[in-house]
Write a structure and sequence with these properties.
Blueprint lengths: L12 H9 L4 H9 L5 H7 L5 H13 L3 E6 L5 E6 L1 H4 L2 H13 L1 H9 L5
Antiparallel strand pairs: 1-2
């Protein structure tokens, strides 16, 4: 796995949250785990564009950042479930606010995003 060699700049809250939430699927993973989709296979179905490998990497990072907890059940076949930690729960209102902003500005956002593909 890729290991960072340069220490990130952590001089303000935006830098800190960027370091924690950087990753294409992390916000969606947190949201779906909050909604009750806790098994890796459920998360894969909710985010079909993401590879299983990338989801596993990002789940591991979220676990290391203490935003989610992983519970492994001693059954055959093995069963794994993820849940938000208390710390992770504090991000849900922030993610909700971002989603509301996206919904409110959906037309403009689509327009500026699609400009890249009109060339």
């Amino acid at each position: 796995m890729y290991e960072r060699k340069i220490i990130p700049n952590l001089s303000c809250g935006l830098d800190l949250i960027g370091e924690v939430l950087y990753g294409k699927w992390k916000i969606r993973l947190l949201w779906f785990i909050n909604e009750g989709h806790m098994r890796p296979s459920e998360l894969q179905r909710k985010i079909p564009d993401a590879s299983r490998r990338v989801l596993n990497i990002q789940l591991k990072e979220l676990e290391e950042q203490e935003l989610i907890a992983k519970k492994i059940y001693a059954v055959v076949p093995p069963k794994v479930e993820y849940s938000l930690t208390d710390f992770g729960q504090t991000l849900i209102p922030v993610i909700s606010a971002l989603g509301q902003w996206g919904d409110k500005n959906e037309e403009k956002l689509r327009e500026v995003i699609m400009k890249r593909f009109e060339k």
